[in-house]
Amino acid sequence: MAEAHQAVAFQFTITPEGIDLQLSYQALNQIYLSGVRSWKKRVSRMRNRVIKGVYPASPSSWLFVVIAILATMYMRSDPSMGLIAKIQQHLPLRYSHTSLLFSTLLWLSLILALRFCLKLLLSYHQWMFEQHGRISNTTKVWVTLVRLLSGRKPLLYSYQTSLPHLPVPGIKDTLSRYLESVRPLLTDVEFKRMTELGNQFESTLGNRLQRYLKLKALWATNYVSDWWEEYIYLRSRSPIMVNSNYYGMDFLYVTPTPVQAARAGNTITALLLYRRKVNREELKPSRVPGTVIPLCAAQCERMFNTTRTPGVETDVLQHWQDSEFVAVYHKGRYFRLWVYQAGRLLSPREIEYQVQRILDDTSPPQPGEEKLGALTAGDRIPWSEMRKQHFSSGINKRSLDAIERAAFFVTLDDEEQGMKGEDPAGNLDRYAKSLLHGKCYDRWFDKSFSIVIYKNGKNGLNAEHSWADAPTVAHLWEYTLATDAFQLGYTEDGHCKGEVDRMLPRPQRLLWDIPSETQVQSSLAVAQALANDVDCHIFPFVKFGKGRIKKLRISPDAFIQIALQLAYYRDRGGFCLTYEASMTRLFREGRTETVRSCSNESCAFVRALEDGETEDECRRLFRLASDRHQNLYRMAMTGAGIDRHLFCLYVVSKYLGVDSPFLKEVLAEPWRLSTSQTPVQQMELFDLKNYPDFLSLGGGFGPVADDGYGVSYIIVGEEMINFHVSSKYSCGETVSQTSVLQPLFRKHINNKNRTETAN
């Protein structure tokens, strides 16, 4: 209702005596305080720009350089070696001013030199390939130098200009690695044919495409990311629900409060506190776990106040600098909920109070309003046409702007979800499906992320994929869950803490004028067919975890990936092209690369195990497979992957209007096993020793191939690995649930003799 307050700040009437001017001092005060908040943010941004601009030096180092230069000159020594005199000959300045100018130029030169040195140091990646406990002297010296150059407390984006650019691999190396990756999947005849295609591509078109790609790498910050965002995400015309968006879940065993409005109050507050940290750049830069090596933070820039708007040929990501409200959906109605009042963030209790007002509102949806969100769940072209025809002006545009400009989207779901009742495994599966697609119209899938608060206090998240990858959203969600449960907390009766200003204006109901529901119903039908076809299964594996795996001196990720190869072989009787997401955030604006987890070594181990080879032989082959997987993962992280390079070569070929049978065949290969690990990045926020039940469920995504599986997993603590498996009912050969593992989960729950509890 901020517009209403501003509208009545000045009231006047024309009278015979003249103009009768009335001022609303309360409204004027709110306008003043909002302006103060805006100016504080501007000043903070300017200060951060200065600090980032001189990193790895500090602004105060300028004063040190000036004093040092002046001191040497006072001692009648010329540290400039005649440059100050040269400057004076060409500029009409006093000697002191010339000295100040020289000091400033020297200081800026030192900053550039330090930044260049840091960039060179961060371009060194050999440390990643060294064995644990056997660090070379070169790497030890390198670590020391990195610590020295980045010792001052950095801001969130301080390292951005010091991160190296993603290198373009040699085309011969990429083709060699590609052929090696598909060798276990092809017969001898098929492999010979693929080798000939690759050699023909390299000797003819490949080198020409490579030259264009190297030219782009010299000009662009990252030669992959802009094309990846545009062609893989934004140009896709199929539904983003299930196909692209992914979800994150609440705690497994605990629901901090059963009060829906209270959980919404704390969750919204925690998210806004995180946004404040991002805006002020108070978050610590993410680093490679256990090291001082920074990761690119560019994906944080579009986390809030961002939406994906549909187009006929391509969608567009729109980001606004700030937003003082969130959009809320409840029982078919849309609301604008202001989260700032007079320039201050509302307390969790006040947000709970406002959310409860929405829950208590019994007004019915307007015609066409209830299922309007289905437009974001269906195909993109119909949504683009509908938007242009009916949402480009009037009240529809104003209401749509309120949703798209909101900090994020909130759904107050009227269902109960989570692990509860007599069927905990089945309930977890339904919980996953609810977060992945809901009713297909009660989420706004175009928003950067949407929060779902269920009737029983459970919560979750649905995230749009084009603006960022899962680790960025996972970092946000970890902070939100920890802040909600351990910092904000609840009263004994389950309500948020804090005071309430009951004079707060009510949440604003958004108004619509939908002339026809035909297109909405059409999009809903497409979305429901897609949602009904998704088979989701959540499996918390509790027999052993990271602790026992690490005792074997084997990477937990490699262990799980090889186990997935074995599971797929037993399920389908063969091997398939396997996708594992690896980050490339060691480089500026880096996103992901593919680790082709199905290797010659992993296939050899699986065959040996299934053929009944000796235990010693299986152990030997397993260790070889593990080492191979680790090497593949490191190569992907350090820019020596396969798939992003081939993808970019294909894009160049399309721009040039030439066809490559080799590239066309490579990019058409289906990923029947698509996997991803959700990293736990902030374990310091969770006290699992004193609060062992506060275990995260992680998140998941839909299957990539119609006849394949999507597998997401999160390694929680030392004794649990949570798996999220998805497939499609329409494929008769894939089933997400496993009859072998299901009884183990049921036994675990029965032994604990508990379901979800309110804490």
UniProtKB/TrEMBL annotation:
EC number(s) recorded for this UniProt protein: 2.3.1.21
Carnitine O-palmitoyltransferase N-terminal domain boundaries: 1-47
Pathway this chain belongs to: Lipid metabolism; fatty acid beta-oxidation
GO molecular function term, any single one: carnitine O-palmitoyltransferase activity
Active site per the UniProt annotation: 465
Subcellular location: Mitochondrion outer membrane
Record Gene3D superfamilies: 6.10.250.1760, Chloramphenicol acetyltransferase-like domain (3.30.559.10), Choline/Carnitine o-acyltransferase, domain 2 (3.30.559.70)
BP term (GO), one: carnitine metabolic process
Catalytic activity: (R)-carnitine + hexadecanoyl-CoA = O-hexadecanoyl-(R)-carnitine + CoA
Main location: mitochondrion
Chain ranges passing through the membrane: 54-75
Family, as annotated: Belongs to the carnitine/choline acetyltransferase family.
Protein name per Swiss-Prot or TrEMBL: carnitine O-palmitoyltransferase
Organism: Echeneis naucrates
Encoding gene (name): cpt1a2b
